[in-house]
Design goal:
single chain; ten-stranded mixed beta sheet; 206 residues
Length: 206
């Protein structure tokens, strides 16, 4: 199933339809402000495990991001931020960044990195944020770029080709237009420090 949505004005009825699929435990491919992403509700462990298989992760080494609709939603799932970290997130989000944060007890343990952190994103994409808002909780996601494989960029950015590759293994592909073949910038904010661990689409100066 493929559904067309427009970033400047996502149709509420279609957003609701996609959100209901996710709430029922379905897996979606969603546009972000970087690469398209596999995504599901954080409340459906089996769907998260399926995403790990689609990505090519081993379950023990899987690394996910938590896709949120706002900084307010992020704050419900991470430990209290210091002034500098909060200022950085407020200035950067929504945007093409992943911030590695100390998670609180609201994040299920099996989604955490070994040091009890998780990457959080608030992408600058109205479609994704509208779907997260309609679901009512963060989504667990990871880009459609498979681990250890060279993939032609069209299969990472063109929703029609992504549907061709994965349509039989996911419940819905949201066509939000041609995406980008550049990952997010990743900043480690855990433990009170700020360190860029991957430079990507988002400009940053710490």
């Amino acid at each position: 199933m493929i559904t067309k949505l427009y970033n400047d004005n996502p149709n509420p009825r279609d957003v609701r339809r996609v959100a209901d699929i996710i709430l029922d435990g379905g897996i979606a491919v969603l546009p972000t402000d970087t690469l398209y992403a596999f995504a599901c509700s954080m409340e459906h462990k089996r769907a998260v495990e399926t995403i790990a298989q689609l990505k090519g992760f081993s379950l023990k080494k899987a690394k996910y991001s938590m896709l949120c609709s706002s900084l307010s939603m992020v704050s419900e799932f991470v430990r209290p931020m210091d002034k500098d970290t909060f200022a950085l997130l407020k200035a950067s989000l929504p945007g093409p960044y992943t911030f590695v944060m100390d998670a609180n007890s609201n994040v299920p343990r099996n989604y955490l990195n070994p040091n009890k952190t998780i990457g959080v994103r608030v992408p600058g994409n109205e479609i994704l944020r509208a779907i997260v808002e309609a679901v009512g909780c963060p989504l667990i996601g990871t880009s459609v770029r498979r681990i250890g494989e060279e993939t032609e960029s069209e299969y990472l950015t063109d929703p029609e080709l992504i549907h061709e590759a994965y349509g039989s293994r996911v419940d819905v592909v949201v066509d939000g237009g041609i995406g980008e073949d550049e990952p997010s910038t990743v900043v480690d904010c855990a433990g009170g420090g700020l360190e860029v661990i991957r430079y990507g689409k988002g400009a940053i100066d710490l």
